[in-house]
């Protein structure tokens, strides 16, 4: 399937302030050690709106959406 997109984080920029988790904690999780895990990196019809919002609101601009090549 072509055109698959994922949200990724640049850990060099992320300061774990959890703004993204505030948008949707089912997609973004910051743990007690200030480490962000992206639980649902796939951009889907269900997650697209929240992921877009998190990308826009991240104060460090650490999140971005990339095209990924899915194997056939
Ligand atoms: S909002 Fe940005 S800086 Fe904050 S935890 Fe999420 S990715 Fe990191």
Automatic annotation (TrEMBL):
Family annotation (Gene3D superfamilies): 3.30.70.20
Annotated InterPro entries: Fe-S_cluster_ET
Cofactor or coenzyme needed: [3Fe-4S] cluster
UniProt keyword list: 3Fe-4S, Electron transport, Iron, Iron-sulfur, Metal-binding, Transport
Database matches in Pfam families: Fer4_15
PANTHER family documented for this protein: FERREDOXIN (PTHR36923)
Name under which the protein is recorded: Ferredoxin
Organism field: Mycolicibacillus parakoreensis
